[in-house]
Amino acid sequence: MTFSLSAATLLAAAIGAAQSAPPDSSEVTGTMSFATRCSVCHAGDGSGTERGPNILAPMAAASDERLASVITKGTERGMPAQPMPEPELKTLIEFLRTMKPPVRRGRRPRSGTVELTDGSKLEGLILGASSFDLHLRTEDGKVHRLLREGDGETFTEAPILPKKDWPSYHNDSANRYLDADQIHRDNVDGLTLRWMFPVLNTPRLEATPVVVDGVMYVTGWNEAWALDAATGRRLWHYGQARTSGLISEAGGSANRGVSVDDSRVYMVTDHAHLLALDRWTGEKIWDAEMADYRDQYAATAAPLVVGDLVVSGIAGGEEGVRGFLDAYDAETGERAWRFWTIPTRDDPEASTWIGSALEHGCGATWLTGAYDKELDLLYWTVGNPCPDFNGAERLGDNLYTNSVLALRPKTGEMVWYYQFTPHDTHDWDAQQPTVLVDAEFEGRPRKLMVQSSRNGMLYVLDRTNGKVLRATKTYDRVNWNEGLDETGRPIFAEGQEATPEGSIVCPGAGGGSNWQSSAYNPHTKLFYAMISETCANYKAMDQEYELGRRFFGGTARGVGERVRYLRAFSIETGEKVWDFHLQGTGRNASGTLTTAGGLVFSGEEGGGFMALDASTGEKLWHVDLNQSWAASPMSYVVGGKQYVAIAGNVGFFAFGLPD
Question: Which of 19, 162, 189, 334 lies 20 to 30 Å from 363, alpha-carbon distance?
């Protein structure tokens, strides 16, 4: 199985740190072995002590073989080897398997009455309390943050208004823009860290926080938290066991966040379930299984609330699943509709799949879509076909892979689609954000959709009908196409398809852009995206589908120099306006955020967080945090104060100006 470094390290430290004397005989029970070898550091129930952490979740995610290896061989990070007779090792592992992580369902708040300094009283549910403040939800659904005064028994109310929420993954405007200018070009150099919320035992954090009415909702690996958006203080927590044996990104902790409505928070789990949690307590309301994870399905995307429905995609796009998009009744969790992104043999679209690959054609839907309320259209992008690099057994366009779909959200009926890369043999899935822009284009107002695609192209579409208005290369080395024909279909260059001998094609498999968020600023009229100037040698090879293995059908090895930029484009012309060269050796999968203060925020290669001038790309502010970014920033206003937040590899950071 794939076992992350962080989880392995935790498990090693957890099981091996105990220094009690081992049993004298191999004829011992697992209970005795655990008690003598492990419990001194990790308690009799595995929940941890000051000497060692909780080991329950890491054990649940590890195979028996991995557990045996860590116990008997130790690790480089200080875990001493624990050699023991085979019978004892077997009984110890059997005992460890009985120690299941508890399903944490949130803490039910208690009713209470608090007295304000003006003599009035508030009654409601106490969501959380500290020595400094208290959070109380009144009957009207409003959450009050109350600051303790004097003796700590009376309170003043910290205002939530004025506020600007960020209510969904891409914000409600679906363009990663916040119309707030308290933080601007002239004062951003005074930005400071206001709070940080650590998240333990998760190898990477990919979630974009959601903020509504002063409460922030974030996720980790099968976990969700509600936080005070002004202080980061926890209001509730939900968590459940991680699923062992997953080979997809979900098995490595990828989860990109939540969606909310008036009373519920929605999230997915690694094993392709969609959950509804009580927005005020974190208690689970319903649990819908979207697909069987034993068929290699998984889930990573933040759901999207559209009216009375919750829409969610699935992951498994290299594991040979059959992709789909689901909508569920927000009240009951009953499935309302399903749109299959891969046809069956008797569907008309099956004519675009000539060969044996159709039944495991992938086309996953693992990034959150966008919704246009005025048009009542739901937009969702679709992943690549499988096998990724070998197209010999799937001749044809392979609909609806590498496409954006426009659907009626009440029924799932398709209104239009556009396929960015027909018959893809480069892993250029279309799971890049579709940014919705209302702007003048070619002399008249248009409803646009903009995407910086993994195939190295910048697209401007009319989102009312899917017509391509402009498509330009995001960097000069892009060589797979020679433009578009009159229908918007790419004109393929000779030799662009992956072959057994290999083909040098640009972009590389990581793409010109990837899933990291792009943004559009209506004041500068510029579109901001992370661009990787890469090429690769694509080789196809024969591979039959096998459950439990990734279905690549070839390889892609980078060739030449890899250069990364945060790049600003004019959507009117498709031309580059400015570049910020990203330099360093760290991992950076951060996206972009732009604001009315004339700023663009992003993580950078060296592990820092930065703000650039949105008009010129000039660096205005930077803080070293030594993070490996795998998430995109967002911004919000609560109590009249603007914050900028982002997830790093150790937790969530929120920045603001000094009081």
Answer: 334
